[in-house]
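Pilot study result, target chain (376 residues):
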Amino acid sequence: MFGRKIHLFTLFGFNVGIDFTWFFLAIFVAWSLAAGLFPVYYRGHAVSTYWWMGIAGALGLFLSIVFHEFWHSVIARHFGLPMKGITLFIFGGVAEMEDEPPNAKTELLMAIAGPISSFVLGGIFLAVYRGGLAANWPEPVWGVLQYLGWLNIVLAIFNLIPAFPLDGGRVFRSILWAAKGDLRWSTRIAAAFGSGMGVLLILLGLFAFVTGNLITGIWYFLIGMFIRGAAQMSYRQVLIRRALGGEPVAHFMEKNPVTVPPSITIRELVEEYFYRYHFKMFPVSGNSVLEGCISSKEVKEIPREQWDQRTVREVLTSCSTETMVSSDTDAMKALSLMNRTGNSRLMVVDGDHLVGIITLKDMLKFLNLKMDLEGE
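Predicted structure:
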C-alpha cells in the first residue's frame, strides 16, 4: 500500500511512520486553514498568524490521526493480531495489520475503538478551548483548539459512515459476518457500499468545484477517489488471503533456480547471467550449498578493468533475511515480505541449502488460476 516511509517514533511498541505522500496532505491542510477557514472565522489577524494557525492545525491533525489509529492497534494487540505499526499517508492514517480479524466480534471492537477515541479527544480539545476562552488566551490559540475539537468529532462521525474500509464500514461488515459467517461475502457487500460512497463523494466534489467551492470540491473528490479505490482493494485482499492463505511456497516455487558458481569471473557473471536473465540479484551456490548472494550493486563497485581478474567468491555478500524464506512458509507471509521489502524474488532455503526460488509472477499465476477454477 505504501512506498518509502519515514520512521518517526515508537509508541508503546507500535512504530509510527509517515509515507512521503502525507507531506502533500500536510501542506494542503495548512493552506486550506490559513487561506480559507481561519480568516473567515477569526478576522483581523496578520497573514503570518493565519499561517502559524494553519501549521498548528496540520500538526494537530497529525496527532489526532495517530491517536485514532493507536486505539485500533491497541485493541488488535489485545486480541493477538500482529500489527506492523501506524502509517500516515495522503488520505489520513492506517493501522497496518498482517491478517484479517479472526472473528466478527474482534472486527467490531477494533473498528469502533477509533471513532470512540476521536470523540473523546474532540471533547478534550473543546474543554481546553473553553478554558482558554475563559482565561482570555489569544484568539489564534483557542481558535486552533476549537478547530481541533470539532475536527475530531467530524472525523469520528465521518468514520462511522458504513462505507468500507472506513470504521463504520468495518462495523457493517462485522454485523454481516456475524449474521452469515462468511467473511468474503460480507466484505463484498461492505466494499460495494464503500465504492458507492466513493462515487457519491466524487460527484459532490465535481459539483462543488463547478459551483466555485474549490477547496471543498478538491477534498470531496480526493476522499471519494480514495474510498472507492480502498474498498475495491480491500475486497481483493480478502480474495488473495483466501486463495493463498495456508499454501506453502513449496507448492509453486521454481525448484531448479538459476544460481551463480562462485568460481566464475565478474565478466562472466555480467555477460552470462545479468545480461541473459535480467535479474538484479543471484544466489551464489556451490554443490547446492548457498554461499551468499551477488547483486548489480556489488558489481558496479568493481572497476571494469578488474572484471577479468576478480571472481564472484571475492565480492559476494551474505544473503539478507529479507530475501529468504523456508519451504514451509505460508504464501501470504512470503507475499507480505515481498510487499514490505520491494523484492519480487525470494530464495527458498532449507538450512544452508538453496531448494528453490519463489517469484511474485509465479504467485500471481497461481492466484489467478485458483480464483478462476473456484469461481471467485
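One observation from the pilot: The radius of gyration is 26 Å. A full batch analysis is planned for the follow-on phase.
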